[in-house]
Write a structure and sequence with these properties.
Layout: E1 3-11, E2 15-26, E3 29-41, H1 44-51, H2 56-75, E4 80-85, H3 87-91, H4 95-106, E5 111-112, H5 115-123, H6 128-131, E6 136-142, E7 147-153, E8 156-163, H7 167-171, H8 177-193, E9 199-204, H9 206-214, E10 222-224, H10 225-236, H11 240-245, H12 251-254, H13 257-271, E11 275-277, H14 283-298
Parallel strand pairs: 1-4, 4-5, 6-9, 9-11
Antiparallel strand pairs: 1-2, 2-3, 6-7, 7-8, 10-11
Helix pairs in contact: 2-4, 5-14, 8-13, 9-13, 10-13
Length: 299
């Protein structure tokens, strides 16, 4: 069966990702199948949120990784690709310099997207078509620098926003108190708007994927807020070294997973949502869906 291949690069606050995805076109619509996923740990968020700019060392590493991604995109002969950077780059005072240096070295042009665009791209995965059009869902995407929330009912997005609350910010005490207060009030408001509705959370991001596995859940299962809290209590009972040695977490995951737990738990607690599902999709998947939609408009 013929397919079309697309590429998506996600320059996050905690890591860099390249997704190569095959899209098969059938009578029942397109089928998206991940071909390859590459992840490189680079904490641009620590530079941006703590120092206000991206360091020369980080720019050098970023440039090398982007050059590698560019070669892979060419080798896989993708139809099109998009390179998106989120919170860490949004807030870096030298983002224009970073974009220029990375382009000159790698040939990849970085697009710095705002929080609302990030939320819209995540929503582009259209999981509601798979999970059930008649139900209500709330996307919760937790990154290193921001959390994107999208609530939709009957296939229609009724609320979408981005908050400057992320795992790296929390880890270093860089979440503004007013931002957290606004987040809490917004979640409570959304919870009130859900009165009488059965709403399921959809979690995306590397941390919730790992949390799901730690909780012993499989892809087709949901995770209750009670079990999520139990898993948090278990993981937080270990120190950082124990999370790495005993729970087998990567070092760049072992510290940020605790604040990730807190954000997901707060999101569900304040909205009154009882369960979360984790289809293991995120920003890069949404980029691919958008690229495919754009491709179909031209053929």
């Amino acid at each position: 069966m013929d397919y079309i291949r697309f590429g998506a690069v996600d320059i996050g606050s905690n890591a860099l990702r390249l997704l190569l995805c095959n899209v098969y076109e059938g009578n029942d619509g397109p089928v998206f199948k991940k071909a390859e996923l590459f992840r490189f740990p680079l904490r641009l968020g620590e530079d941006s949120f703590l120092m206000g700019s991206i360091s020369d060392d980080s720019i050098a590493i970023l440039s090398k990784v982007m050059k590698s991604f560019k070669l892979l995109l060419e080798a896989y002969e993708v139809e099109s690709y998009r390179v998106c950077a989120t919170a860490a780059m949004r807030e870096a005072s030298n983002k224009d310099e970073v974009i220029k240096r990375v382009y000159n070295y790698s040939g990849l042009r970085i697009e710095v997207i705002d929080g609302r665009t990030e939320a819209e791209l995540i929503y582009s995965n259209h999981l509601e078509n798979i999970l059930g059009n008649e139900k209500s869902y709330m996307y919760i995407d937790v990154g290193g620098g921001s959390t994107e929330i999208t609530l939709f009912k009957e296939q229609r997005a009724v609320y979408s926003n981005s908050f400057n609350i992320g795992t790296i910010r929390m880890l270093h005490g860089k979440v503004d108190k007013l931002e957290w207060s606004n987040f809490k009030e917004t979640m409570l408001m959304l919870g009130e708007s859900m009165d009488g509705l059965e709403v399921t959370a959809i979690g995306s991001g590397g941390n919730i994927n790992k949390i799901f596995k730690l909780a012993g859940r499989k892809d087709d299962q949901s995770l209750s807020i009670r079990r999520l809290k139990e898993c948090y209590d278990m993981v937080s009972s270990y120190n950082l070294d124990e999370r790495i040695s005993l729970l087998k977490l990567n070092p760049d995951r072992a510290d940020v997973i605790i604040p990730a737990f807190k954000i997901y738990l707060a999101s569900m607690k304040y909205t009154g949502i009882e369960k979360i599902i984790v289809p293991q999709v995120g920003l890069s998947d949404g980029i691919v869906h958008r690229l495919y939609d754009d491709y179909r408009k031209t053929v």
